[in-house]
Amino acid sequence: MLRELGRLDLSRAVLEDAFVVARGSAERITFAQLRIELARTLLALGDVQSARRCLEESEIPSTDVSTAAAAKATQAQIFAAERSPEQADALFREAITLLEPTGLALDLAQRRIERAAFLAASDR
Q1: CB 8 within 8 A of CB 45
Q2: Which of 9, 95, 122, 123 shows its CA 20 to 30 Å from the CA of 17?
């Protein structure tokens, strides 16, 4: 929410604090979701390398399709920021493909919106 409001530094601080609290007690899915949100915040701050590192350090449970798709979409955004549009688009499509058979309509809509924004920004 803070990231969407443009409060990027505060978002980063809150997410980093959440890691400290959640480190020993949170479920793997919750911890992975926090890492994805932090990676997205770092990316919004323009820190592409830290965003990549944060996402690479995440252990994404394959059993949680929503989190796996969000991780792929975040990785796609990192590739887009690194000017690798083919890799970015492939990951966006993978995220969408993961979600299509699940009935997770809001997640699917979000991933499609993110891909559309990427396509519009890259004139594809």
Answers
A1: yes
A2: 95
